[in-house]
Amino acid sequence: METTQPRIMRGYAILAKGEQPKSLDEKTYLVKSQSGNGSYHVAIVEDEWRCECPDFQFRRVVCKHIHAVRFWLALRKKIEKSSLFNLREEVLEAKYCRFCGSPIIIKQGIRKCRFGFKQVYLCKDCGKKFVSEDAFQRMQYDPRIITATLDLYYKGTSLRKTSDHLEQFYGIRINYATILRWIRKFGKMIEEYASTLEPKLSEQWHTDEMAINVKGKWMWLWNVMDKDTRFMLASLISEKRQIQDARKVFQKAKEVGKSKPGRVVTDGLHAYEDAFKKEFFTLRNPRTKHVRMPRFTDETNNNIVERLQGTIRERDKVLRAFKQEESAQKILDGFRAYYNFIRPHQALQGRTPAEVSNINLNLKGNKWLEFINQAKTSKCNNKKLTKP
Question: What does the pLDDT look like over 256-267, one tens digit per residue?
Answer without folding.
Answer: 998 889 999 998
